[in-house]
Amino acid sequence: KDDLQVGDIVFWKPGLTNRRFPRPGTAGIITRVFPVPVKDTSRTEAGSPYFNEDLTVAVGILDNDGDFVEFTYDGQRLQRVDPSQVVGKHSGFACDGCGAQDFTGIRFHCRECDDFDLCAKCHESGATPGSHETSHEMDAIEPCSPELLRERLALFQEPSCFQPGDIVQWKPGL
Fold first, then answer.
1. Whole-model pTM above 0.85?
2. Mean of pLDDT values over 10-27
């Protein structure tokens, strides 16, 4: 039985993966622990990311656009880590300007170019490799950190009371 709890910072155990989990080295935070394992009945074919797998926890991660998203997993694949091991890198990203891999600091993601990111230094210098232009809108994305994961978890957990007919929008960052 997993001993993971809501609020734990997690990584994949070495050698274990899941096709739905984001880039290697990505940290997550436990958002829910299911009292009994659940199965995703829509995923019944072999080759599904969790074919016949007991799903015991939900994990919130920051996706490629910096939004907090939640996935369900078999918690036995995950391990709790010391938050100091999450060093605020953009794991799996390279700057399209200077080529720096897994860089720290703010990442600037182009809204117009396909899969285009710049580190803060290249963004400030106005780097325009390939077809990217300085007139393109860029989103500033913070690197994953325990503090940011906890902040997004708290926002995720804030209760909302809706009535039929309410007009709603996503909470910022979720």
1. no
2. 73
Q: Which long-range contacts (CB under 8 A, 24 or more apart) does 44-50 make?
A: 49/18, 49/19, 49/20, 50/18, 50/20, 50/74
3-state DSSP call for residue 3? coil
Model pLDDT, residue 1: 46
Sign of CA dihedral 68, 72, 74, 75: positive
What is d(CA 44, CA 112) in angstroms, rounded to the nearest whole number? 37
| Cβ-contact 31, 7 below 8 angstroms | no
Average pLDDT over residues 35-43: 75
pLDDT of 16 above 80: no
C-alpha to C-alpha distance for 31 and 19, rounded to whole angstroms: 20
